[in-house]
Amino acid sequence: MNEKVKMCFIIQRIEIFPSVQSIFEYMCLDARYDVTLLVLPRFDHATNKINVNTIEQNLKFALQIANGAEVINSYDDQKKKFKRLEDYKFDFIFLGLPYQREYPMEYKFANLSKISRVCYVPYGSSYADGKEMIRTSFTTQLLTFVDYIFCDCIKTYKYCQSKLKYCQNADGKRIVYNIGYPRFDLITYDERKGKKNKTFLWIPR
Predict the structure, then answer these.
(1) Per-residue pLDDT tens over the stretch 15-68
(2) What is the pTM of this model?
(3) CA–CA distance, 121 with 186 (Å, rounded to integer)
(4) How far apart are CA 144 and CA 111, in angstroms?
(5) Which of 37, 40, 54, 192 is within CB 3.0–4.6 Å of 12 for a Cys-Cys bond?
(6) Nearest Cα residue to 183 out of 50, 38, 15, 4
(7) From the DSSP assignment, how many helices (H) and strands (E) are in the chain?
(8) Contact yes or no for 26/190 (Cβ under 8 A)
(9) Is the dihedral of CA 86, 149, 136, 22 positive or negative?
(10) Handedness of CA 35, 174, 117, 163 (dihedral sign)
(11) Bridging pattern class, strands 5-11 and 92-95
């Protein structure tokens, strides 16, 4: 019997988890996958530092949605340091954010790429954004070390493809995909529950 594929989803900002929620829930129900939620603390933009005190709220959220997945607290409060991910032997890690500075030093993209294949689904849709905004969202550090990018729209697909069109990942496959945006799966979930009325709030950025 083949071993299960070990999937890791990083939770750092709980409000952006819906971008991968449908993927996570599908894998929790599929016997081929062993799914883990890795909980990190939030990055505080006011102090420009990671705030380890925020990890408790993120852990509470992860336990509520776990659906049978293992939940790992990334921070060892007694040793005052972050845990080594090498010991967990993940096959794939889904990043929550594309901004490397918001991750602990131990979990920089270069380090993650040495122990797992790194995946990224954008946390927001860029279909109305200009090229400069897209460039800021798909950072050089992300494009350097990611194995799979699942784009949210044709704009970001063309941008990432232009940067990585000559590259293949460790499996010899292409890196950039435009196969639908998982956050929109939540709309069909609501329809199955009988919620037919939708309200869209448009806030210019």
Answers:
(1) 999 999 999 999 999 999 999 999 999 999 999 999 999 999 999 999 999 999
(2) 0.89
(3) 15
(4) 12
(5) 40
(6) 15
(7) 7, 11
(8) no
(9) negative
(10) negative
(11) parallel
d(CA 179, CA 41): 30
Cα separation of the two ends of the chain: 51
Written as one letter, the residue type at 138 is F
C-alpha–C-alpha distance, residues 175 and 165, integer Å: 8
* 150, two tokens: 């699942």
CA dist 77 → 37, 55, 82, 108 (Å): 18, 11, 9, 20
CA distance 101 to 97: 10
Q: Which helix (H) or strand (E) holds 190?
A: helix 185-192
